[in-house]
Amino acid sequence: MSDTLSMILVFAVLFPVLYAFVRRDPYGFNVYMGEYGSGKTQNMTKFLKRKGKHQINVSNYYTGYTDVQIQSVHDLLAVLEDMYDYHRYVTMWPERKKLFSKKPWRLPSYEARAEEFHRKHPGLRPGVNFTLALDEGSVYFNPREVKENFAGRLRGLLKIFYQPRKIKLLLLVAVQSPHEIDVRIRRLASYYVKYYKGLVFFRWAKKYYFPNPEEMDFEKADLVGTSFNVNFYPYYPRYDYSTTELVDPSEDCYVPWSVFAVIAERAPAPRPSFSQRIADVVSRFRRLSLRTAKNPEATL
């Protein structure tokens, strides 16, 4: 009986951790919503803190886990374009002949642009992913700002928002109400996560998929997940972040291409091909044979 009880207790402790690991969304566009103090920004920061070895974090508020900070609408567009150029000219480069095999007339122009990009930004390697966290997302994506600030560039922005998984981007946007976001942006979100203040230190969140984001009718939405947590803010969980600075969509702080410097440091080293590994083994065997011939007691 005691063994059974022990197994039940262990499962009860490990299940939330395993469930969160299985259910986490590595890439996509998620909207975090809820009233003030419900834990939206705190949970966005949680994703930044879970920084992988090859993950680059971008945010519009201070965190101790941010690699590149942005502020204005221009900053947002610039960093997204840099991510897209990295994907287009670095990630796609090794597969360019296969990708353009059905449209070979476009390959020469692509190679010319890619080679120019590599000359300007040498040392970039594929293999990184991005997390972009935007607090007070309505400052950027309310209907008026979208109309005034994204005019003429909205098409390029939507191209990234439609397919964030292809550039390995997890985009997190926190708002108090999803109705604050322009419908053209709102309909692109993969999921909506609603946070609740809960009872004392016990909080929960519900994850929804809206078949029709224009209506935002919770009765018609699909509930795809529920999470629970204990929150003793600011003591537990403890995250290094601050939201005291006002978000100003007109004040630039991002230096163009600065994300490339982080990519150069964070990208994984290229793995040797199978033939290179075989050649290395043969070379080591030859060196060992020569050393053994001169000195039978020699070893590697």
Sum up the structure in keywords:
single chain, 300 residues, alpha/beta, Rossmann fold, 2 domains, eight-stranded mixed sheet, two-stranded antiparallel ribbon, 11 helices, 41% helix
Provide structural commentary.
A hairpin with a 2-residue loop joins β7 (191-199) and β8 (202-209). The chain has two domains: 13-269, Rossmann fold (3-Layer(aba) Sandwich); 273-300. The protein starts with a helix and ends in a 6-residue tail after the last helix. The protein is built from eleven helices and ten strands. The chain is of the alpha/beta class. The strands form two sheets. The protein has an eight-stranded mixed beta sheet with strand order 4-2-5-6-1-7-8-9. A two-stranded antiparallel sheet has the order 3-10.
N-to-C order of helices and strands: HEHEEEHHHEHHHEHEEEEHH
CATH class of the largest domain: Alpha Beta
Specify the structural class: alpha/beta
Q: What is the alpha-carbon Rg in Å?
A: 24 Å
